[in-house]
Amino acid sequence: MREENAVKVHPSRLARSWDGCDAIDGDIVRTYSADLISESKKIRGVFEWQGRAFVCVSVFHQKDGVKWCEAVEVVPVGLFKPERDSLEEAGKPGDCFYYGTQVKKGKEAVVLGEALTFIPDQSCDWAGPEKQQELF
Description:
Blueprint: E1 6-9, H1 27-30, H2 34-40, E2 47-49, E3 52-62, E4 65-76, E5 101-105, E6 107-120
Parallel strand pairs: 1-6
Antiparallel strand pairs: 2-3, 3-4, 4-6, 5-6
């Protein structure tokens, strides 16, 4: 877990069902797409956090629930401005394996390098499912 990039969210956003019912999954967990990115360069969807679109790429859970999720920002290709010119410059806080990877959800998008770790915190307000941001 990247503690320097950790943000707190209501636990319902990280909820994970174990009966295969997506309706119970939180909006962050529901976008998990690491398997699709590696196989077909697609994503399942995005969730919104502070007006930005993200896709979940890692989920760590235990019997009592999800402990954290890592997600990376998704933006249209035309808006992607690389901050790294080479692999040698990668590895800074917020970078992750998916930096600059092009994926599809409708039209093409780029999964940016800034990775955030979302951790559950009951004190965070959240009134219910946010509308999934439609970028495409």
